[in-house]
Amino acid sequence: MKSILITGASSGIGLATAELFLNEGWCVGLLARREELLEDVASRYDTAVALPADVTDELAVQEAVAGFADVAGRLDVLFNNAGMFGKQAEIDEISYADWRAVVDVNLHGMFLAAQAAYGQMKKQNPKGGRIINNGSISAHSPRENSISYTATKHAITGMTKTLSLDGRAHDIACGQIDIGNARTALVTELDERRAMNGLEPLPSMDVGEAARAVLHMANLPPEANVQFMTIMASKMPFIGRG
After folding, report:
1. Looking at 45, 96, 118, 149, which residue is catalytic?
2. Which run of H or of E encompasses 111?
3. What pLDDT digit, counting tens, does each position of 195-234 carry?
4. Residue 43: Cβ-neighbour burial (10 angstroms; 0-12, 13-18, 19+)
5. Which residues pair with 178 in a beta bridge?
6. CB 137 within 8 A of CB 180
7. Res 187: pLDDT
8. Which residues pair with 205 in a beta bridge?
9. 72 phi and psi angles, rounded to 5 deg
10. Which residues does 193 contact at the CB level (< 8 Å), separation at least 6?
11. Rounded-to-integer distance, Cα 7 and Cα 110, Å
12. Best CA proximity match to 160, nearest among 186, 187, 139
């Protein structure tokens, strides 16, 4: 049975992806802070492993990855998904604490999860695996008033490229999925803010489409890798990589 650890697995894209992989017969590690939500999923699937942890806690992440590998036998895939949008405002209205909160989760947290998974994949026998980083449309082009989120998502692109290069010697593939407006609580919140300003809802797509894209990336054989995939609502404006 193949195994995947998903961060941010208690809601949104992480939860949708976890449920899809579980229904496809994978052993799934569910990592997030909200233990009760993880336990709810785990109670419905024999192959789900609840791993309550904060992605910004180095020791907790290391223990979660090692513990899941012990249960599953190995770690085949990490879906490095946990993230937060943060305060939506122009830069002079963002406090340093606001900035740090987003950077701690979106960059430091993704670093810690990738670091622990990479180390596990290097030492397991046979070695190797796959890391899939959740970037964002914001890794291409920003939304308005999103300085913290956009900066971190651009940083994830650099992380993906570096891990893809360094992982070759250890049979570790790394790719990135950039998702545009899957219907989650985050998009709902953005729409509510837009409505307050008299704006139309954002074009969006079912969150299941994002989950199915992750499944495609995860199911590739070791010699193949999706380096970057962009999946977005069809009616979103064209966004090119700069």
Report:
1. 149
2. helix 110-123
3. 888 888 888 999 999 999 999 999 999 999 999 999 999 9
4. exposed
5. 230
6. yes
7. 79
8. 182
9. -80, -20
10. 88
11. 9
12. 139
Dig out the tokens for 108 from the structure: 């430091």
For residues 110 and 156, is the Cβ–Cβ distance under 8 A?
A: yes
Please give the order of strands across the beta sheet that includes 228-232. Answer: 48-52, 27-32, 3-7, 77-80, 129-134, 172-180, 228-232
Give the residues across from 5 on adjacent strands.
29, 78
pLDDT digits 0-9 by tens, 4-50: 999 999 999 999 999 999 999 999 999 999 999 999 999 999 999 99
> Is 96 an active-site residue?
no
Using the predicted structure, report yes or no on whether residue 193 has a pLDDT greater than 90.
Answer: no
Strands (E), the chain: 3-7, 27-32, 48-52, 77-80, 129-134, 172-180, 228-232
Distance CA 127, CA 141 (A): 36
| The pLDDT of residue 242 | 40
User: With 0-12 CB in 10 A as exposed, 13-18 as middle and 19+ as buried, what is 136?
Assistant: buried
